[in-house]
Amino acid sequence: MAFTFLHAADIHLDSPLHGLQRYEGAPVDAIRQSTREAFKKLVQFAIQSKVAFVVLAGDLYDGDWRDYNTGLFFVAQARRLQEAGIPLYLIAGNHDAQNTMTRTLQLPETATLLGSNSPQTLYLDDVGVAIHGQSFATRAVMEDLSRHYPAGEKGLFNIGILHTSATGKEGHEPYAPCTLDGLQTRQYQYWALGHVHQREILCEEPWVTFSGNIQGRHIRETGPKGCWLVTVHDDLTATPEFQPLDVMRWERATVDLTTITQEDDLFPAISQALQILAAQAEGLPVAVRVELTGRTLLHDFLHAKREYLVNQIRGLAIQSGLDQIWIEKVSLHTKPPRKMASHDESTDNPWDELAHYIAELRQQPEEFLALGSEVVDLQHKLPKEELDLASAGLLLNDPSTRDDLLDEIESLLQSRLMQAEGDA
């Protein structure tokens, strides 16, 4: 019998994002409520689509709650599914496992949290499904849980729910690692994975997929976010289709200034990039990081007039009628147009020395992390209300964050060197 179900993960209800008030014009309320609103959309979509059931592959919560309101919100939404006759099956991920209140929360009858002692199998006789899964017992599960999952039941559509880093994903802790070959040996038709926040299909025979999180929470989580609507056919094959659920988006607007030589041409180029993002967001509010790149004659101007530049770009969004856009940050990754001198050991060339040192930091992440340890020490001295904000923007072991920081550092230092030469 053909049917549909939803696969979602990494809801992170009420994920704490402190210090947002420090960002000029930040839509604080919209950001803080976004995970709840996205989950409401998930429930509403499930009801409208008349799915047979919903699968959540871990990290429903985001660590310990401040109070029971987070849990009570989830219970209320699960109750909506119950009233529509839609069961909910979920496992605890690493963030759920650290939450002490989760263990005492009374779930609706149709919401089932699979156990953590060993893999558990549930049979859904009305649709011919066997669901296999295991929750995290502790925050840091370093063993391959999938090795103990039972073999698939013949004649049934088998779903494996697993919170895992798979073979390893940058920016994610290596929890419950597993291999694609190992998952395939279980002979399931569908693996519903969680933990990695970027949507990804690892395999199609069988389907092994990360749904990603349902709502981006910061600039490292860009693009549409949502869940998979999976259609199961009579021959036990499946077809997943992405369904966006986010209520606001985070995006990067990268503008190459290589061919732009005048300020009069700069802002129209940025405006065009913002308009493209606004159109792609289909009416959703968008938090945008504007990244200016390329070797350009405007390099010195951009760094000397940074505050002016930021305010002009913020004004662009308003003047263009892009009320849905908030400029989260303006990052300068430009380079001056001068050609760097070749390295000459007989001369003291600060340009070559800088380029050589930055290149080393790019090629040797451990050196960058060692340098960054001083920043981490400084972070720990921040007040609690500022710590989460600082951590959200400075994930030193994340390659994209590392490259962003090094780009900006190199760009800024090059500008300072040019100013020093001009003053000499």
Summary tags:
424 residues; alpha/beta; Purple Acid Phosphatase, chain A, domain 2; 2 domains; six-stranded mixed beta sheet; 35% helix
Write the layout of secondary structure elements.
Layout: E1 3-8, H1 28-49, E2 53-56, H2 69-83, E3 88-90, H3 94-97, E4 111-113, E5 120-124, E6 129-133, E7 157-163, H4 180-184, E8 190-194, E9 200-204, E10 207-210, E11 226-232, E12 238-244, E13 249-256, H5 263-280, E14 286-295, H6 299-304, H7 306-319, E15 325-335, H8 350-363, H9 365-380, H10 384-393, H11 399-423
Parallel strand pairs: 1-2, 2-3, 3-4, 6-7, 7-8, 8-10, 13-14, 14-15
Antiparallel strand pairs: 1-11, 5-6, 9-10, 11-12
Helix pairs in contact: 1-2, 5-7, 8-9, 8-11
Would you give an account of this structure?
It contains eleven helices and 15 strands. The model is unreliable at 340-346 and 384-393 (pLDDT under 50). It starts with a strand and ends with a helix. Strands 4-3-2-1-11-12 form a six-stranded mixed beta sheet. A six-stranded mixed beta sheet has the order 5-6-7-8-10-9, with no helix packed on it. A three-stranded parallel beta sheet has the order 13-14-15. It is elongated, with a radius of gyration of 24 Å. By secondary structure, the chain is an alpha/beta fold. Helix 5 crosses helix 7.
